[in-house]
Design a protein that fits this description.
single chain; 163 residues; 47% strand
Length: 163
């Protein structure tokens, strides 16, 4: 079986941080920084974070992070990430990764451990996910193992298709 293309979604990991923060009137907050990080000095640790994303009064994503460590006003390290994307057609995609780093100055995030993406339609495991918030595209880097459900292609049995 030909593997599912691996251009997948780190946007699931950080959907609420997918846009560049706007500058504020304060001179201490500028481009490339997440608003609020100036309140937390480097080395600060925040535990038990839940970040929902809403679109048209519907939850479209939920990111849960066991621990966030502020490396600088631009960079965060994250531990124990579980991100869930809820689609309007009832599908739910879950991304799990032990750790990640997100840099607001480059708007790029990268998991730093083996990452698993699970959906009723497929499962993919890879070395890490790299996500660019500017383009809102991500890539599951290898080695990658992808399993696609036969029901995605309209088949529900396990008998191989005839050529």
């Amino acid at each position: 079986m030909r593997p599912l293309p691996t251009v997948l979604l780190f946007s699931l990991l950080l959907p609420v941080w997918g846009q560049q923060p706007a500058e504020t009137a304060s001179d201490t907050v500028g481009r490339g920084e997440f608003p609020g990080l100036q309140l937390l000095p480097p080395g600060s640790v925040v535990k038990g974070i839940s970040l929902p994303r809403y679109e048209e009064q519907r939850v479209t994503a939920l990111v849960k992070i066991e621990e966030m460590r502020v490396q600088s006003r631009q960079k965060l390290s994250l531990q124990g990430i579980v991100a869930t994307l809820f689609s309007p057609d009832g599908f739910r995609t879950v991304v799990k990764s032990p750790s990640a780093v997100y840099d607001f100055s480059t708007m790029r995030g990268e998991t730093t451990g083996r990452t698993r993406i699970h959906d009723k339609r497929f499962t993919a495991r890879g070395g890490r996910v790299v996500y660019d918030a500017k383009t809102q595209k991500g890539l599951l880097r290898g080695p990658v193992r992808t399993t696609v459900s036969a029901s995605v292609f309209g088949r529900t049995g396990t008998t191989p298709a005839k050529p």
